[in-house]
Amino acid sequence: MTESEQIESGKILYQECGTYLRYMLEWRYKLMLRFFVLNASFLVIVKWMWETNNSNIHLIIFLPFLLGAVASPAFYVLDRRNMKIVKVCRDTGKDLEVGLFKNAGIFVNVGPYIEQTRGFFSYTGMLALMYIGFAFIMLFGAILSFIKFGGWKLFSII
């Protein structure tokens, strides 16, 4: 393969990395939106169940909490998968800029800022804390509501 063919195929790969990176970051924001909508819906259902005077509904008030406790780690796993793909796209773009193009582009110039923001106080760290923290809060709510309203009585009804 000649050098011009390598550069041409590198350009195509570079464009694909940028396109896929944008797609995965957009998907990440869509996941966050769905996380908030889903868990807000669970909490609205819990509020409605709480205000209902039907004791049979109080028996199952732990279920929306439990569903939220299961859904939140699923969002965490999806976010981690997205970030792994984003990292591959970023590293591939950086390698192409440094090795093939011999010109620093966005992937090289953004790299140091991304390295500084890794860890607990990064965007990814705060999202992980939100997903896992909310899972524990919902699990705690499920346990408390199961105990308070006698959720075990549900099994005797069935």
Averaged pLDDT: 87
Q: What is the count of structural domains?
A: 1
From the helix content, strand content and strand pairing, which structural class follows? Answer: mainly alpha
The H/E string reads HHHHHH
Question: What does the main sheet amount to?
Answer: none
Number of helices: 6
Whole-number radius of gyration? 23 Å
Low-confidence stretches: none
State the share of residues found in helices, binned by percent: over 70%
Percent of sequence in beta strands: under 5%
Shape: rod-shaped
Number of strands: 0
| End-to-end C-alpha gap | 70 Å
Layout: helices, strands, pairs:
Blueprint: H1 3-51, H2 55-59, H3 62-100, H4 106-116, H5 123-148, H6 153-157
Helix pairs in contact: 1-3, 3-4, 3-5
What does this structure look like?
With 158 residues, the chain is mainly alpha-helical. It has one domain. 85% of the residues lie in helices and 0% in strands. It has six helices and no strands. Helix 3 packs across helix 4 and helix 3 runs antiparallel to helix 5. The N and C termini lie far apart (70 Å). The model has no long low-confidence stretch (mean pLDDT 87).
Features:
mainly alpha, 6 helices, 158 residues, single chain
Short description:
By secondary structure, the chain is mostly helical. It has six helices and no strands.
